[in-house]
Amino acid sequence: DNVRDYLDGFGRYTVGGNTQGLAFIKVNQSNPSEQPDIQLVLLPSNNSNGFEQRAYNYNDETYGAIWEKLDPRRSFTIRVVLLHPKSRGTIKLQSTSPYIYPAIDPKFFSDENGEDIETMYQGILAAIELANTTAFKNMNAVLFDATVPQCSVHDRNSREYWYCQIRHLAVPLGHMVGTCKMGLRGSGAVVNYDLRVHGMKRLRVADSSVIPNIVSADPSIASIMIGEKVSELIMG
Known about the structure:
With 236 residues, the chain is an alpha+beta fold. It contains seven helices and five strands.
C-alpha cells in the first residue's frame, strides 16, 4: 500500500524535502545590497494526508481550497522563500517552569515599510515568470488556481490579490535565528563575541540563535561552524 501511495503521490513517503532545484535571486532593486533576497525551491507536489494542515494550523476552508484540489501526480511546486526578513518578533518566558512553553510572537510582515510582503510578492512574480518559460511551457505547465476564499474578491493579477494570498498562506520555514543574538552588552544582545551570555559565568550559547542576521540559505552549516568555533574556544 505504501508503494502504491508513493507512486500516486500520496502518503508518508512523499513528505520529504526532495528538492529538485534551487535559485537565489534578487527582486528588490531598491536595496543596494548584492545579497539575494529570494530563494526559489523546485519541489514535487504531494498530498500528505493533512500534514500541512496540522503543521501550519490551516483552517478547513483554507486547506480545502488548495490541497484537497491538488493532484500531486500532475503538479510541482515552486516555493518562494524570503531570505532576509526585516520584521522582528519576540520570544518571552511565561513562567519560571521549564515545562511551560515560551510566548513566541514572530510578527510576520510587521516591518514598518512593508518591505517583507512586497519582496515576497515580487518573488512570486519571478516564480510565475519562470513557470512561463519555454522549458516549462513544453511540459504544458499552467498556474494552479489555489485561491483561498477570502482573496477571491481581488483580481488574480493584482498586487492586492497576492498580498491577501501571502497573508493567508505564508508559513515559517523553521530556520529561526537571532533570539540570543551576538553583540555588545546593553544593545539588546544576549551573548558577546565569545558567545558567553552577558552577566553570567560559565554559560555560552552555541547554535543559530546567536546569529544577528540570517544567512542567505539554510543556516544548518553556519550552526555547525558556530559549534566548532565554540569548542575551540572552550578547549583553548
